[in-house]
């Protein structure tokens, strides 16, 4: 209770406490109104029904928790000598066999990537997490974020492929000079004449590109051997990086005054949203090769990535359209009155406000896509879930699917839970100024 | 009244200028942009079609749906209509569509019930119940559906064999061959009773409408429920009894290595159903919760002040308003569940995607196979949206 309130109560009490037999000192509230006891009474035992529900649930929770702890920890086997799963089979149903995770965790996380090179996908996962954290911080919501994304994604490509692929373009001296000039020019333009900063940074980028591979001695790994968590993160991140601009264009097109463009966008969105992602993935895996001219072939991973981009684009476009519609008409009219062109109006007035409105639903859509990347299992791409499923194909480890799926589920859960909590906080924060 | 008092926007349309062939004319720009975009799209599509035609020719794949009439030769474990591997591809695909509908319809019903229960539980004043419901929602929504399906399927496969089957209730057996339930031997009387039930429900609805119209006319409330109970319960029972009241229960019994009799829910169907229902229920719970929270507390109080009973408040005041918020997102959840049923292919339930996929592998008719999948889902999606849009329009707020 606030102090001011107490003094008011005291004065009131002294004023009326002339009734005989009544104590004049302020009484503390009854234990049934405040404090833990009152909380229990109000929230757990407020009625007969509530009490019954509480007791039943408490009983079930305690029983299941004890059962789970016994299975997962007390009776569990954490390690077995090489592929000797007899001990695990004996305790099946009574205790968990975490030995399957201990034995196979490198395979589940990184797939068939060469064993000695596992530090590279591990570093890639860390880079991805870092990228997500940076993007989540509002301090970094600026134009520079696009540069950070481009830089980190390039670095991820270099790490995953390794070898001389990335610097391979820059073998010849003229290519090196050209790259240098280009980078310096870009930096110069970006910094508006501050060449003192642009030149050294361009040099550093160039040096990284040209020498990172050979200097660190990373052998080339083709994308057929990539697998596990990096694939999941690559599909999700690159998918969003490309689907998002596409979605903005489609959302703008759907609200365009040009009937042909509007119709094309409606057709695209409704067609994609009407069919399951699997049918698009099938299309990417069996139909796409038919679309291309003879001799031209696109890698399977890239085809799946294109399907995911097209799919995500349609859903994100609807979210963005919601933001465009929520923006008051006055904003559009004011921009028109200022004489801005369509793209000026869109880029400077409409999008910055519209996107801000839909950040929470966007994050929710991102969570959906992160989970949906697991569907590539069906067309045989080696993502985290496929790696988990493949790990238990070996006869010695057959029948320990539950343990592996719990492990894989925990990884997915960590990413999705973080995003979902972030989205909830952001929603509260963005709405605060409106609630006032 | 002169024109001056009307909204100036209504009559101040800009005068039509003659079209000038100049870039500074907005209409010229609009036409040029549209022609350009449509031209690019048409060119890309034409290029793809030409490549495809060429590739098909090179690989000697005949196009067209002629393969549908050929013998499929693919075994299907679960079928609602008669089917054998000697039937045609068309019939196999029809079986697949029916299997998809079987899981989608049952899934939508169960997910709605479970989701509504959990959504209301999240709003419960009982702290433990509310926390448990919200933990459920959080965990279920943060795990990929495919992972959950594989998880359930693994658990069902890990169950003991038919000889050591779990027997939770008498006559119900749960083993790695699926769920076995007792079932009555279906006879003509049951069909007649079922028809009587439909007729009774229609009669009850008509009676309720008549009672409502009478109440509007003379102000006298009439009880609809005695007539409804009589029509919905009494009529079918009477029909069934009049036809000899046949009642033979077909119980599953263990014979050899498997059960005979009763009805079976295969592990694949069971896993798919559990996965879809629990997953979608997590989303529906959030929708229901948001819908109920969206109804202003003042509405409850005003209704109570009018002297309505609790049930009436809920039925006449709160639910109609909550439904308005609930129905549109619920539609997309139903669509999602139907589309997600395509994940059946990963655990071996033979839905349309699975059968079309086998078909296209056997015949090489990739384009036709995928076109069939897409056409089926588009049809289902559009039907669900059309129905839900109609329902939404019915319950939507009618303003002046």
UniProtKB/TrEMBL annotation, chain A:
Membrane-spanning residues: 48-66, 119-137, 144-162, 174-190, 197-216, 228-252, 264-292, 304-324, 375-393, 399-418
Major localisation: membrane
Residue ranges occupied by any ABC transmembrane type-1 domain in the UniProt entry: 229-423
Cited InterPro entries: AA_ABC_transptr_permease_3TM, ArtM/GltK/GlnP/TcyL/YhdX-like, MetI-like, MetI-like_sf
Protein name, UniProt field: ABC transporter permease
Family to which the UniProt record says this protein belongs: Belongs to the binding-protein-dependent transport system permease family. HisMQ subfamily.
Membrane topology according to the record: Multi-pass membrane protein
Cell compartments where the protein resides: Cell inner membrane; Cell membrane
A GO term from the CC aspect: ATP-binding cassette (ABC) transporter complex
Assigned keywords, A-Z: Cell membrane, Membrane, Transmembrane, Transmembrane helix, Transport
One GO MF term: transmembrane transporter activity
GO biological process: amino acid transport
Record PROSITE patterns: ABC_TM1
TrEMBL record, chain B:
Positions of the ABC transmembrane type-1 domain: 97-388
Membrane topology according to the record: Multi-pass membrane protein
Molecular function as annotated in GO: transmembrane transporter activity
Protein name in UniProt: ABC transporter permease
Organism: Caldovatus sediminis
Record-level GO cellular component terms: ATP-binding cassette (ABC) transporter complex
Family: Belongs to the binding-protein-dependent transport system permease family. HisMQ subfamily.
Example of a GO biological process term: amino acid transport
Main location: membrane
